[in-house]
Amino acid sequence: MTITTLTSREFNQGASEAKRAASQGPVFITDRGKPAHVLLTFEDYQRLTKQRRNIADALAMPGVADIEFDPPRVDIRSQPVDFS
Questions:
Q1: How far apart are the first and last CA of the chain?
Q2: What is the pLDDT of residue 22?
Q3: What is the C-alpha to C-alpha distance for residues 71 and 75, in angstroms, rounded to an integer?
Q4: What stretches in the chain show pLDDT beneath 50?
Q5: What whole-number distance in Å separates Cα of residue 57 and Cα of residue 78?
C-alpha cells in the first residue's frame, strides 16, 4: 500500500493523478500543511465502513498495524460507600 500526500492546490490541478494514486492506497490532501481530507477508492471505503462483527475482525483490518495507539494508563480504585 502506497500513501500519497498532496496539497489542496496539487489536488485541484491534478485530480486525475490523485485518482490514479488512490488505486495504490489512500491519498491525504492537506490544507495549509495539515491533513484535511482522504481520497480512497470506493472499494477501500466500503471495506473500511462495513459492519464489523467483533473486535478480532476490527483488529485484523489491513493497515491497523500502522496506527499508533497508546492510551493513558487509568488507575481505578474502589471507594468505601456510606449508606447512612
A1: 62
A2: 95
A3: 12
A4: none
A5: 34
Q: How far is CA 71 from the centre of its chain?
A: 17
Burial label for 27, CB within 10 Å (0-12, 13-18, 19+), is buried
Q: Is 6 exposed, middle or buried (0-12, 13-18, 19+ CB in 10 A)?
A: buried
Model pTM above 0.70: no
CA 64 to chain centre: 9
* CA–CA separation, 52 and 58 (whole Å): 6
pLDDT at 12: 94
Provide the H-helix boundaries in the chain. Answer: 8-13, 15-22, 42-49, 55-59
**Cell numbers placing 14:** 491534478
